[in-house]
Amino acid sequence: MPKQKTHRGAAKRFSVTKSGKIKRAQAYKSHILTKKATKRKRNLRKAAYLATGDAKVIKKLIPYK
């Protein structure tokens, strides 16, 4: 079997933790930030984790990460 190719878009967006969870960035942080509260923007900096159903799909896209 040949090696699997990593999905480069997924590799840039997701990372795998030691426990096997998939870490992702929060959405809604790229533009139209003036109307969003400072507290809300600060909380959007924190990392979030994928749901287990979505994580199965992403793990196939980033096999060597």
What key phrases describe this protein's structure?
alpha+beta, 3 helices
Describe this structure in words.
By secondary structure, the chain is an alpha+beta fold. 35% of the residues lie in helices and 11% in strands. It has 3 helices and 3 strands; from the N terminus they run αββαβα. It has helices at 8-13, 38-44, 52-61, and strands spanning 15-16, 22-24, 48-49. A 3-stranded antiparallel β-sheet has the order 1-2-3. The longest helix has 10 residues, at 52-61. The protein starts with 7 loop residues before the first helix and ends with a helix.
How large, in whole angstroms, is the Cα Rg? Answer: 15 Å
Work out the strand percent. 5-15%
Order of helices and strands: HEEHEH
Reported for the largest beta sheet, the result is: 3 strands, antiparallel
Shape: elongated
Helicity, as a percent range: 25-40%
Which ranges are low-confidence, i.e. pLDDT below 50, for 5 or more consecutive residues? none
Distance between the termini: 19 Å
Structural class: alpha+beta
Total of helices: 3
Query: In order across it, which strands form the biggest sheet?
Result: 1-2-3
- The beta-strand count equals 3
- Average residue pLDDT: 96
Quick rundown:
With 65 residues, the protein is α+β, with helices and mostly antiparallel strands.
Ordered list of secondary-structure elements with their pairings:
Elements: H1 8-13, E1 15-16, E2 22-24, H2 38-44, E3 48-49, H3 52-61
Antiparallel strand pairs: 1-2, 2-3
